[in-house]
Amino acid sequence: MKALVVEPTLTYKLLLESLFNDRSCETVLVSSGREGLLAAKETSFDLVCVALHLEDMTGIDFCKILRTEGNRTLPIVMMTSEEEKRIFEEGMAAGVTEIFRKEDLLAITKYLTTFKAQHLADSRLAGRVLCVTNNAPLTSVLQTQLSQMGLKVEQSCFGEDAFDKFGTSDYDLIITDTLLAGPMSGLALVREVRQGPLKKRMIPILVLSSFQDDARKIETLRSGANDYVSKPILEAELAARVRNLITNKKLLDQVEVQQVRLEEMAMTDSLTTLYNRHCLNENAPGYISEAGRHDLPLSLVMIDLDDFKHVNDTYGHNAGDQVLVQVADLLKKSCRQEDIAARFGGEEFLLLLPYCNGQDAAKKAEVLRRKVEALKPNGIQVTASFGVCQLPEGNLLSFEEIFVLADKAVYDAKRGGRNLVVLSQEDEGF
Question: What region, left, alpha or beta, does residue 355 occupy, with left being phi > 0 and alpha being psi -120 to 50 degrees?
């Protein structure tokens, strides 16, 4: 980032230089308006800071001349010690973008910090843009400018083709002209996108148009466009609007990702990454209700590691945690996609098995029992007791009632010598 400082007072000039240097900004320091105008012709600047009173002209006159020499979008900050409203009005009319009192260093510092951060954001902008226009010169301008901003650009002349691309690829922004080559107009494209797949219909859309009447602008926004740029296009305006739209989209994307992560955290056990008790209580009633309505088999398997307190007391809680993690991994690998494997608490695990009757669930539990016995996590011999319960046919029990039956079956397995599978309905050990 490079700034031009036009300030006749040496002390204040050095102060501004220090503020810019603290933000890794290169500065060119001059004292007069003439020197400043000459520097602006020879060098491209990102920001101009000018004092109200210069050696050879006022800062307001300097701004007027600078604007007439082609610097239409260059940010200009004017520093003044005066508080007259007239100064502010004349400065803004001359093209000044911000006016600060010289004594208000805090406000100046905040502005420079924000400006620098925004400049960095512009240089780091990334994303994919779909540009829809059949105007060759405009297409070239968009391609050049967006590429310079770090964006990947795809082009299309037809609304129909653009909508097909939208359906098969992911973009961060759509820029469309109102008039396109085919029968589909830019506004029709906007409406089609807004009625597209739920996860994609909120993509930001920027519409370009040579129409200036208010009715068309309002219709453009009503159709679902996020923003509107009139032709001829100012490159700085286009860049600012593109940056804002893409930045906002990425922020919303981050919020959605964080929301999903929070939901996952709320539903999973932090140690084993299995579902937790809360998730089980939320989802099990739905599974049970569906099984009861359609007479589908459903079984519950309760798993309790044997003598787990002895593991913690003998090998330590870190070793105990590793045992839980490895047993959980074994359960996850042994589950079908529709099954729910959960850590119910402590050393207790639970499997909810839709479309699985009690006999098949008991056979699955027996396989798991043998795998747990052979697992020996960190060299520690571990066994588990299994209690199996099937949802009775024609009897819509609650999750709590089925859980009680499975828990009783685990108790029977413990009483029978541990390292057993007990099927609640038949009270039979395997």
Answer: left
Domains of the chain: 2-121 (3.40.50.2300), 127-259 (3.40.50.2300), 277-429 (3.30.70.270)
pLDDT tens digit sequence for 186-197: 999 999 999 988
Percent of the chain at pLDDT > 90 equals 57
Asked whether the beta carbons of 417 and 307 are under 8 A apart, the reply is no
pLDDT at residue 391 tops 70: yes
* Predicted local distance difference test score (pLDDT) of residue 348: 96
Q: Which of 306, 302, 307 is nearest to 409 (CA)?
A: 302
Six token digits for residue 366: 């027996």
CA–CA separation, 84 and 233 (whole Å):
35
Q: Which of 283, 364, 289 is nearest to 330 (CA)?
A: 364
Compute the half-sphere exposure of residue 6: CA atoms within 13 Å on the CB side of its CA.
Answer: 32
Distance CA(419)–CA(291), nearest Å, equals 30
State the amino acid at position 100 in one-letter form: F
Rounded Cα distance between 14 and 23, Å, is: 14
CB 287 within 8 A of CB 300: no
Nearest Cα neighbor of 305 from 294, 319, 295 is 319
